[in-house]
Amino acid sequence: MIIELERIWFSYDGLLPEQRPALREVSFSIRRGEFVGLVGPSGSGKTTLMLHLTGLLKPQRGKVLVDGVDVNAPGVDLVCLRRRIGLVFQFPETQLFEETVWEDVAFGPRNLGLPPEEVAKRVRQALERVGLDPERFGARNPHQLSEGERRRVALAGVVAMEPEVLVLDEPTAGLDPQGVRLLEQFLRKFHSGGGTVVLISHHLDFVARSCSRIVALHRGQVVFDGPRDAFFADETLLREMGLRLPRLLHWWCTKRLRHPQLPPQVYSLEEVRRVLAEIGHRDRQRAEAGRSALPLPGDAPEAQSRTAE
Amino acid sequence: MIQLRDVVVEYPRPDGSRIRAVDGVTLDIREGELVGLIGPNGCGKSTLVRCFNALIRPTKGVVLVDGLDTRDPRCVLEIRRRVGMVFQNPDNQIVSTTVEREVAFGLENLGLAPREMRSRVEEVLERFRLREYRHHPPHLLSGGEKQRLAIASVVAMRPRYLIFDEPTSVLDPAGRAEVLALVQELAEEDPQRSIVFITQFPEEVESFPRLLVMRQGKVLLDGEPKGIFAQVDMLLRIGLEPPVEYLAESLWAKSPLAERERSEAEKGLGNDDQTEFGSIPSGERPKPIP
Fold it and tell me: Are A97 and A205 found together in one domain?
């Protein structure tokens, strides 16, 4: 599946998008299997853009194409579209309404008219995928669960529709670190299983370690679309948008002041661990090769290439 | 000053047994202090701060607010006037139909003269940038604005102590940033005002001068956030996660590069103050790419 946005203009004021546009001439596409971070300051148009992907808002100018079909053309099956593209809104747990977790997750699949055994299969799988044991949680009242658990129930409700694309709006808001980790694991699995993810988030550390491509919106316009490394290297742009470097990357940069041989960018603690372990490994190799004195950081490039051979 | 001496709070369980939510806490909150309070879920944070304004009276021990005993029913009103509390979800705290009335609500209950009340309402609407919304019903405000209104209504009563019980946890990122900035302002503008701020996000209290860490009803750590966050392994063991820089720093400390730094420092080669984490002024942000 491919989603293409073609020169979209949208204004909440009405039909003249030039007046206070929320989106201005927005164009980019999302290809199958991508993990895209959609970032930008508050009010930059991220959520408005998300609502365009399944025809919940219609652009006043421009087109949204899914597999080449204009989603706002007459006769397009929006139900089918919304099944394929799952939107997870901000604080989705506020939309839980059934008396049990099982019923809440079953609501969507049942509405698709699936046979009961298929519904049961999907509910079970969806709960397992978001890390909730169906036996333990199925019969519970969602309103008596913790914030993090309710968020996962809501996510399971979308997952049970078996979407090809997941679009999540600030999914980490209000989650504790453990909740963020579980969400991250889920998204990684969804992605490695062939799913496409669009992640809207202010949590730049989370975006940086998850997304390989960044689309940045500022005042309703796309101001950046490209690989993550290039985005986080563009300090001027980040400053203009009022965004800060991811905290871990900022820390890494302070280390690089003294150790310029370190790779320029890291985004996760696993990467930090790996880079440091490689350095340790190299040092040991060098020591075994008979060089007793530890090399100083400055002489690294030559020494490194020699040991690499 | 709020003084706690050997405070114990027990709740009855449905089966008749008792659960100890606060387990022997001795603590002073001094004038003008800005104190963060963190701890894993269910550690007793909320119960503890509810002892500050007599919402909960200790099962054992004493809580004194400027010398007033929270167990003495004659002191309760005065204590609640001095200790204002802002809760997690502004929707549970806001009771009135317009922004203006919400700010006036607490003042009416204080029995202020109408003229005084009016002038305080004006002052607070101005101070909290709520004037243009004065006739709006609160439910039309954004999450951050609602929390601002909840804080404004409490501040209007001019409490000496302001207690925030996870005011950021149900807000979106913009609202969170707004409330945090407001708390910092409130701490700075009145040197007599004391603030206690509970949060589940350790990075929110990183810049506070004092941090308390609770676990299983006890205050486990009390000190500067930097020193506390550096105890990474201990925090992780009790289910708390320090800000990511501290996690990274603990990996770094075990790496060969840190060893080199240490041996260089011994030889007097390095300029240690430059690379020690946190000492680089924020204005001189390093470039990520050479």
Answer: yes
Shared domain for A28 and A123, answered yes or no, is yes
State the total domains in chain A.
Answer: 2
Torsion A132-A137-A142-A143 (CA) sign: negative
Domain stops at, among A244, A272, A287? A244
Under 8 Å CB pairs connecting chains A and B tally to 105
Q: Contacts of residue B239 in chain A, CB cutoff 8 Å?
A: 178
Residue ranges of domains in chain B, CATH in brackets: 2-242 (3.40.50.300), 245-279 (no CATH)
User: Same domain for A171 and A270?
Assistant: no
Question: Does residue A176 share a domain with residue A291?
Answer: no
Whether residue A261 is found in the same domain as residue A233: no
Q: Looking at the structure, do residues A233 and A255 belong to the same domain, yes or no?
A: no
Nearest CA distance, B117 vs chain A (angstrom): 35
- Rounded CA-CA distance A276/B248 in Å is 11
pLDDT number for residue B280? 43
Residue B180 corresponds to which tokens in the numbers above? 């945090």
Q: Which pLDDT belongs to residue A294?
A: 56
**Are residues A168 and A298 both part of a single domain?**
no
What are the distances in angstroms from CA B254 to CA A29, A282, A288? 44, 15, 20
pLDDT of B288 > 60? The answer is: no
CA distance A296 to chain B (A): 8
Task: Please give the residue range of the domain that contains residue A256.
Answer: 250-308
Q: In whole angstroms, what is the distance from residue B21 CA to residue B10 CA?
A: 6
A101 touches chain B (CB under 8 A): no
Tell me the mean pLDDT in the region A78-84: 92
**Contacts within 8 Å (CB) and 24+ apart, A283-288:** A283/B256
Residues of chain A contacting residue B248, judged by C-beta atoms under 8 Å apart: 248, 251-252, 269, 272
Q: Please write the tens of the pLDDT for every residue from B94-131.
A: 889 999 999 999 898 888 899 999 999 999 999 999 99
Confidence of residue B56 (pLDDT cuts 50, 70, 90): very high
Distance, in angstroms, between B103 CA and closest chain A CA?
A: 27
Q: Do A235 and B285 touch (CB under 8 A)?
A: yes
Is there a contact between B248 and A233 if contact means CB atoms under 8 Å apart? no
Amino acid letter for position B208: F
Q: What is the CATH number of the domain that holds A86?
A: 3.40.50.300
Query: Is A227 an 8 Å CB contact of chain B?
Result: no
Q: What are phi and psi of B56, to 5 degrees?
A: -125, 135
